[in-house]
């Protein structure tokens, strides 16, 4: 095993759990999160020589978020295309646990707003860091966060969204 492969293996061993959490929060589905992480790690490995000298974790986060947004767009397009039989929709969970409420509200957000909320509040990145990961301006991060928080407040009623996020983060 080369030194680069060894360094990549150490990075994955150290950060995989955190990155899987980012992927899950970005897409809201455990199986898809594992696929997103696998895709991100594959792309990172292919570019490891370039990425490892910088900070590889922001690069992997960016790949995860971009892949989640792309997949959500593809699904939205596929929903528009008519099918002969309507797709089955899963039954809503009757569990009113705080995490489930929050995850349902997060899933309802557009992908870019969900990405901003995940990076800003779960990953505790600054606005500048979030903008860097998403490849946009700080102003875009601020406006997307504001819109997303307003939607979350509406979806969750009068409960404090910050408190809900803080409790679910634990």
Task: Please give a quick description of this structure.
The protein has 170 residues and is mainly alpha-helical. The protein has helices spanning 3-27, 30-46, 48-51, 56-80, 98-108, 111-122, 127-134, 138-156, 161-169. The chain contains nine helices and no strands.
Helices and strands, with pairings:
Elements: H1 3-27, H2 30-46, H3 48-51, H4 56-80, H5 98-108, H6 111-122, H7 127-134, H8 138-156, H9 161-169
Number of strands: 0
Q: SSE order in H/E notation? A: HHHHHHHHH
Quote the distance from N terminus to C terminus: 38 Å
Rg result: 17 Å
Kindly report the average pLDDT value: 82
Query: Helical segment tally?
Result: 9
How would you characterize the overall build of this protein?
It contains 9 helices and no strands. With 170 residues, it is mainly alpha-helical. Helix 1 (3-27) crosses helix 6, helix 6 packs across helix 8 and helix 7 (127-134) crosses helix 8 (138-156). The longest helix has 25 residues, at 3-27. The relative contact order is 0.11.
Jot down its keywords:
single chain; 170 residues; 0% strand
């Amino acid at each position: 095993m080369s030194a680069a492969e060894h360094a990549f293996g150490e990075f994955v061993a150290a950060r995989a759990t955190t990155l899987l959490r980012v992927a899950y929060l970005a897409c809201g589905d455990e199986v898809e999160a594992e696929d997103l992480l696998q895709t991100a790690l594959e792309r990172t490995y292919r570019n490891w020589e370039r990425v490892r000298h910088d900070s590889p974790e922001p690069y992997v986060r960016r790949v995860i978020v971009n892949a989640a947004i792309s997949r959500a767009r593809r699904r939205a397009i596929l929903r528009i295309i008519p099918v002969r039989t309507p797709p089955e929709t899963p039954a809503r969970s009757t569990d009113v646990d705080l995490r489930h409420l929050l995850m349902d509200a997060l899933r309802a957000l557009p992908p870019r707003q969900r990405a901003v909320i995940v990076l800003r509040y779960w990953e505790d990145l600054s606005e500048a860091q979030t903008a860097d990961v998403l490849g946009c301006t700080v102003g875009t991060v601020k406006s997307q966060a504001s819109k997303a928080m307003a939607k979350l407040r509406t979806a969750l009623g009068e409960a404090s969204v910050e408190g809900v996020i803080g409790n679910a983060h634990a």
